[in-house]
Amino acid sequence: MSNTNFTGKGPVTNEAKRRITIFDTTLRDGEQAPGAALQFEQKLLLADKLVRLGVDVLEPGFPVSSPGEFEAVQRISRLYPQIEVCGFARAVRGDIDAAVKATADAEKRRIHLFISASDIHLTHQLRMKRAEVKQRAREMVAYARQFVDCVEFSAMDATRADQSYLAELVEAAIEEGAGIINLPDTVGYAMPHEFGEMFRFVRREARGAENVCFSAHCHNDLGLAVANSLAAIEAGANQIEVTVNGVGERTGNCALEELVMALDTRKDYWQIETNVQMEHLYDVSRSVSRMMHMPIAFNKPVVGRNAFQHESGIHQDGLLKNRNTYEIMDPVRLGIPHELIVLGKHSGRHAIKHKVSQYGIELNAEQLNDVYDRFKQFADNQKVVTDQQLLTCVGEALDQEWGRFKLVDVQVVAGSSRARVASVTIFNIHEQTEHTYAGIGAGPVEALIRAMQQAHGNEISFEDLELHSLTSGEEAVGEAAVTVQVDGHSYRGTAAHCDIMLAIAEAYMAACNQAWSSSGLSDSEEADTQKSAVQG
């Protein structure tokens, strides 16, 4: 462990850069979030994504808790020799035995055992005296140390424990062979300065502390998990325990993506590196959200829908001139398909011109003013103007239908005792032909997507669908955002309607029209014809 000095201006280390170990517990603590249970295959898929993301330590589950958990930890231990796999256990022999057996085939492994440290836990949960807990910690660390070289000891609820007793408990664990000491903020109680001071105190008072690695595991009950984790780093912690999207018990854990990007964006301050490959952050985040059925908040830092979207005209204008004016991170670097502009009543002409250019449409000043006036009529009545509505404005201003395809009709049949069936009628503007397509699926959305895919063959593949409620009540309006892909490039269309199935169909059509216009799929004759119409 390197010697580290800290000043008011930020960390200063003896090495050029300090490296922090990223310990991921998405598949263990993250899965403990209510409703977030994963199927066996889902756990394996997420483990693979986390390994590619570059986390250093993977805690795949709690082996003793169920046969399924044991099997998942065992399988992951066998699959990834390049990563350290951690078996989680209470300070109980049976738990440790299960963790040892489940991780037996791991190339690199550790046992992570815990016991409570605070008096409130000792009195009301464990019903044990301080001396008894310390003796149990000694015995169980020594027992685990017989089987593995690396034992991590967690003093649960450390932030509410008597600090002198906490130092004694840590010292006992170190004496028995624990090489990693985790001081968790189990209930998200600490303030950052308190959390940092706790680490300094224990590192100073516990004998042998200079020979072990210190780790932080923070919960987010007061919204301070990332701040507390950074405070721990500043106070000497070299490992941080995280989950993707901050999932976990109650309000969750320290969010992997937020911690990593705080360290990276402010590397001028921290001078700290991690092994995380940031181009995978968005993909992993979306995968965790889908599989755990936990939507990502629109305003979630780093990976939220609004993190790199801008509606204010002033912000949009500055952003289009230089991204650094209002963005401190590069979304492309994080693997985020960059939807630069969200159009609303605060948007200006510059943003509208940029947005329509994504569809291959170039407007002169007079045309732009006409489109802008029509756009404002939409924007005054709703918060966000969708791609389909913007194209309607363009079509009306230019007195022509814009795009390659136009949605003529949508019919969807759903019921509890029969297959869901959808049919769509689509007009090909270029060929001046109209065709009807039908599809079936387990649900109405699947049936609709299958029907619409037939109009584009294999050239455009469906990638993603997001649904959001824009209003409430009987006349609620739903917004759909559909992403399609062509040759590795993503195109996103949006639409809103009180009939959500129609919104999905219109959003899909908007995305496909953008793909045809921007990807080179449109033939040159069509492109020239539409370009002439705009310039004429």
Automatic annotation (TrEMBL):
Enzyme superclass (EC): transferase
GO molecular function: 2-isopropylmalate synthase activity; metal ion binding
Pfam families referenced in this protein's UniProt entry, alphabetically: HCS_D2, HMGL-like, LeuA_dimer
The keyword Ligase appears for this protein: no
Gene3D superfamilies according to UniProt: 1.10.238.260, 3.30.160.270, Aldolase class I (3.20.20.70)
Keywords from the named record: Acyltransferase, Amino-acid biosynthesis, Branched-chain amino acid biosynthesis, Leucine biosynthesis, Manganese, Metal-binding, Transferase
Record carries keyword Metal-binding: yes
E.C. number(s) listed in UniProt: 2.3.3.13
CDD domains listed in its UniProt record: DRE_TIM_IPMS
GO annotation terms (biological process): L-leucine biosynthetic process
Pathway as given in its UniProt record: Amino-acid biosynthesis; L-leucine biosynthesis; L-leucine from 3-methyl-2-oxobutanoate: step 1/4
Span of domain Pyruvate carboxyltransferase: 20-282
Family: Belongs to the alpha-IPM synthase/homocitrate synthase family. LeuA type 1 subfamily.
PANTHER family tied to this protein: 2-ISOPROPYLMALATE SYNTHASE 1, CHLOROPLASTIC-RELATED (PTHR10277:SF9), HOMOCITRATE SYNTHASE-RELATED (PTHR10277)
Name of the protein this chain belongs to: 2-isopropylmalate synthase
Organism of this sequence: Paenibacillus agilis
